[in-house]
Amino acid sequence: METTGHATGVREADEPEGGTDDGPQSSQPTLLTSPHHASSCLVYPASFAGVRAGWARVRQISARSGQAAGRACEDRCGFRCRGGPMDSTSEAWLDLDLTDPAAFVDNDPHAYWRAVRARAPVHWRPGVGRRPGFWVVARHADVRTAYADNGSLISSRGTVLDVLLRGEDSAGGRMLAVTDRPRHPALRRVLGRAFSSRVLDEVARAVRARTDRLVAAVAHGAEFDFAAEVADRIPMNTICDLLSIPNGDRLALLRWNKAALSSDGPQVDPYGAVEARNEIVRYLTELARARRARPGDDVISAIATAEVQGRRLPLEDVALNCYSLVLGGDESSRVSAICAVKALAEHPGQWRALRDGEVGLDTAVEEVLRWATPAMHFARTAVRDVVIGGRQVRAGDVVTLWNTSANDDEAVFDEPRRFNLGRTPNRHLSLGHGAHFCLGAFLGRAELRALLGALRESVAEVELRGEPTPIHSTFLRGYSTLPASFTPRRSPQPTGAADSAV
């Protein structure tokens, strides 16, 4: 999706034509006040004032308790789930709390989603307290169809469940990922033009060179943390190269971004996450101010000086869209890289096939993206009644689209729990689909291709040396540490410092 990528060739064919609406403008300071959430979840103080009229009916359902809520759920989806007492005939497995950051740390996600696809592929979860309920969509065909239906299902109220359960995303209409037509196509074209072929080619070359150095530096047979020594350093430096972030600021940006999105433990500090997001946006706002005054040959300057529907973006909007690139460009690529190495170590036959050139890098990249699926879900809001998977979704309802389930769907993928680097076709939805297809697909793929190529070139054997640390998040799934060792394929050449920026 747009928030999970950097910036790349824009798939204009997937987009609706733009109109003339300039969208909301704001002169207020950009402060992100939502508790822990991820990606495009920038929620301002107004978000807590209450949900607008479209939520009134949903909240009436959410306020019910006991048997009444159970009946509400049964009326919508045909299953009794979290709203009422469980009994011997209920589907107890539906009781897993999808809003708990530890849900898929403590439970097997693949077994869970396999059961959901088979027994309740589209079902309603009633609200708890003042939080609204939401729909769960699990099958590939239904998720893909929903992504494409940007007329019935909109993004501007928020695209992550945690945000939508608290209120609307007040970056809506300002940041690309949470913008709808007619403004979305115009804003996307501006961001797309900022990434010319020349810029992308230069960054891709830098990605390959940096990745080669980083992998060669750790291919010495001793234990190291792949996350800290390699995965942390590739995507953040890539996006910082695009934005021309000074080297001295990159470590701070990486630290803030990690704190903004997830936790290494079950105790999430929501206020720390808020402060981290605020620091990023403050920093980017000041950069945008400086680049607008004295433009350079960089992406921030291009966005800061461009016009969207005849007007320059407010500085806060420039910062928000750059922040979106940082969020998606760093975290999703980092998680995918860590997952790739873990999977290669756990599937030695696939590692040998990659190392010996029996599978191509491009098909291997697509399988890593499917296997990792770092963004577990994205969300939409129905603006009119619509049928999804045979279920009637009502205007105002929150709809969650579970990529992690769609990418495991047996109806689409043969033996989906088999890691197969030669899998083709590979119709995964890790990069989204439709108008909000990932703007950063090119660079996200380039980073993984560079990593797999460097491993093939420099490493003979990949071994895990301990348990990785799982990420606790309602949005991301993956690991923040990965103890490993790389046996060198040949005597490594002197490489100097692996990377001086991050």
Describe the structure in your own words.
- With 502 residues, the chain is of the alpha+beta class.
- Helices cover 43% and strands 10% of the residues.
- The protein contains 18 helices and 14 strands.
- It has helices at 56-62, 66-77, 103-106, 109-119, 140-148, 161-164, 183-193, 197-218, 226-231, 233-243, 250-261, 270-293, 299-305, 315-346, 348-355, 361-372, 403-406, 441-458; strands at 122-125, 134-137, 153-154, 224-225, 307-308, 311-312, 377-382, 386-388, 391-393, 398-402, 459-464, 469-470, 479-481, 483-488.
- The strands form five sheets. The protein has a five-stranded mixed beta sheet.
- The longest helix has 32 residues, at 315-346.
- The protein starts with 55 loop residues before the first helix and ends in a 14-residue tail after the last strand.
Task: Tell me the layout of helices and strands.
Layout: H1 56-62, H2 66-77, H3 103-106, H4 109-119, E1 122-125, E2 134-137, H5 140-148, E3 153-154, H6 161-164, H7 183-193, H8 197-218, E4 224-225, H9 226-231, H10 233-243, H11 250-261, H12 270-293, H13 299-305, E5 307-308, E6 311-312, H14 315-346, H15 348-355, H16 361-372, E7 377-382, E8 386-388, E9 391-393, E10 398-402, H17 403-406, H18 441-458, E11 459-464, E12 469-470, E13 479-481, E14 483-488
Parallel strand pairs: 2-10
Antiparallel strand pairs: 1-2, 3-7, 4-14, 5-6, 7-10, 8-9, 11-14, 12-13
Helix pairs in contact: 8-10, 8-18, 10-14, 11-12, 11-14, 12-13, 12-14, 14-16, 14-18, 16-18
